[in-house]
Amino acid sequence: MIDVKKIKILFMGTPDIAAGVLEKMIEAGYFIVGVVSQPDRPVGRKHLLQATPTKQVALKYNIPIYQVEKIRKSYDFVKEINPDLILTLAYGQIIPQGLIDIPKYGCLNLHGSLLPKYRGAAPIQYALINNEPYTGISLMEMNKDMDAGKVYVKKKIIISQEDNATSLFNKMGDAAFEIVEEYLGKYINGELLGEEQDISLVSFAPTIKKEEEKLDLSKDVDTIYGYIRALSDEPGGYLLFNGEIIKIYKAQIYSYEIKGDVGEIIAIDKSGILLQCKDGILSLIELQKQGKKRMNYIDFANGNKNLLHQKLK
Questions:
Q1: Which H helix or E strand runs over 303?
Q2: pLDDT at position 115, please?
Q3: Among 152, 95, 129, which Cα is nearest to 205's?
Q4: Which of 34, 68, 153, 293 pairs as cysteine with 139 (C-beta 3.0–4.6 A)?
Q5: pLDDT tens per residue across span 61-106
Q6: CA–CA separation, 216 and 149 (whole Å)
Q7: What does each C-alpha distance from 257 to 110, 213, 217, 279 come to in angstroms?
């Protein structure tokens, strides 16, 4: 039996979900010989350069960190590291076949959906956009095609009505580490056979574009509600009020009635600020005016006295 804690693992990942799993693996005693993340990017209104979450973990534990702009053009350093296994989670770039072929145990990916559903960059967000009752994590073999490899393990995750992207990412991170603990050793010892994906069931979850952060009131109320959840807490979906950006972080479907014009604030009651959509009403619960702090609907309404029967666009 091969001890999975003794094999050399190169971890490839960038955001918070990857950093959380990486840190748990380090603390659990896995032999992480290096971390590969996307390059640092400017963040915030001041555009200050900030280390990626996985880089911060790597530095904390004195693990070598590698950041390249285009991994498909620059991965000779991986040959020098000579890892036994590459494990990826939300890395953010397509891994070339030449890199996949380097480690003797191959390259595994922890993907945030129950494959073959939601291949692509934003599976967690699309599960929310489509108001799925559940989603999951898949441990899969990487190959030259995006998220198309053999699937070894799937772990189902229930999506609650209170979940948004932030909370669902946290659930996903916990489930991903549970898969690592329970199944990585079995994979290394050849105990997992894996299963080819059913091509007829494939769907895709492409990157959410900047322009999609503006909520589209021509869509049905369920989809708008899904986008609000998928974009919260970051970057936040928004509508315009008198030309000003109003971010909406939390909402609920109030009813499927039509009581006003699309975009009209038809009432403000104990459930929230009621926004008429084309086929139903949304209750807006947490909002943020541009340049102001995030607030509940009561405070927002108190600060904007003439909301009733005004229109958001």
A1: helix 297-303
A2: 97
A3: 129
A4: 153
A5: 999 999 999 998 899 999 999 999 999 999 989 999 999 999 999 9
A6: 35
A7: 41, 25, 15, 7
Structure tokens at 98: 């030449």
**Cis before 101 (ω within 30):** no
What type of residue is 156? K
Across 166-177, average pLDDT: 97
Q: Are 9 and 84 spatial neighbours (Cβ–Cβ below 8 Å)?
A: yes
Return the residue matching tokens 């939300």.
90
CB 31 within 8 A of CB 6: yes
Residue matched to tokens 């109320």: 221
Q: Are the beta carbons of 221 and 279 closer than 8 angstroms?
A: yes
Contact present, 196 and 152 (Cβ < 8 Å):
no
pLDDT tens-digit map of 24-42: 999 999 999 999 999 988 8
Can you tell me the distance from the alpha carbon of 311 to that of 304, in angstroms, rounded to the nearest whole number? 13
- Quote the Cα angle for 116-173-154, to 5°: 30
Q: Distance between CA atoms of 42 and 48, rounded to whole angstroms?
A: 5
Beta-ladder partners of 295: 287
Rounded Cα distance, 173 and 16, in Å: 9
Q: Measured between alpha carbons, how far is 130 from 168 in angstroms, rounded to an integer?
A: 14
Report pLDDT for 291.
83
Q: What would the two tokens of residue 94 be?
A: 């397509």
Residue 86's DSSP bridge partners are 10, 107
pLDDT in tens, 48-63: 788 999 999 999 999 9
Mean pLDDT of the chain: 94
